[in-house]
Amino acid sequence: MERYTRTAMLLHWLVALLIIAAFLLGLTMVDIKGITPTKLKYYSWHKWMGVTVLFLAVARALWRAKHTPPPHPAGMPAWQNKAADAVHYALYFFIFAVPISGYLYSLAAGVPVVYLGVWHMPVLFEGTPELKAFFKPIHYWLNMTMALFVIAHAGAALKHQFIDRDGVLKRMLP
């Protein structure tokens, strides 16, 4: 069975780990009451992870455009092929949409994003309470929907590994 390239594997697992970490950190930081040094630190880390995911998403999309992924297993039903492709396209959408919506939400809240405490990202517009109220649920629901797709993706990989035993998961493992 054909495998993904080492670069594709590296980008896949880096993005996956960063998304999981940013998601869990996001859930943690919003539960901290008030404005504390820890909460501010977590917000910075969360934003840094999001920007890193966005940069890696660009690299990943460019790599994918030049490198065809391995074909689906020969015995996989057509509906599963279509479902796998749909989930992959949705995940690509989310790895762009979630960080961008977070960036816009931060700007809408009037808080600029300073990547790694060094690079001041462009301030595209001035924050207002109305814009903050607009972008907050967008960022939240994109995250929650992405989490469902990540769970479906991981569940399908585990199904292929332990039930179908068709080697699909091994294609993405180093």
From TrEMBL:
GO cellular component annotations of the record: plasma membrane
Keywords of the record: Cell membrane, Electron transport, Heme, Iron, Membrane, Metal-binding, Transmembrane, Transmembrane helix, Transport
Keyword Transport in annotation: yes
Highest taxon listed in the record's lineage: Bacteria
Upper taxonomic lineage: Bacteria, Pseudomonadati, Pseudomonadota, Betaproteobacteria, Burkholderiales
GO biological processes: respiratory electron transport chain
Localization of this protein: Cell membrane
Major location category of this protein: membrane
Segments forming a coiled coil: none
Cofactor(s) of this protein: heme b
One Pfam family hit: Ni_hydr_CYTB
Protein name: Cytochrome b
Molecular function, one GO term: electron transfer activity
Membrane topology term: Multi-pass membrane protein
Similarity comment: Belongs to the cytochrome b561 family.
TM ranges: 7-25, 45-63, 89-118, 138-158
Annotated ranges, domain Cytochrome b561 bacterial/Ni-hydrogenase: 3-174
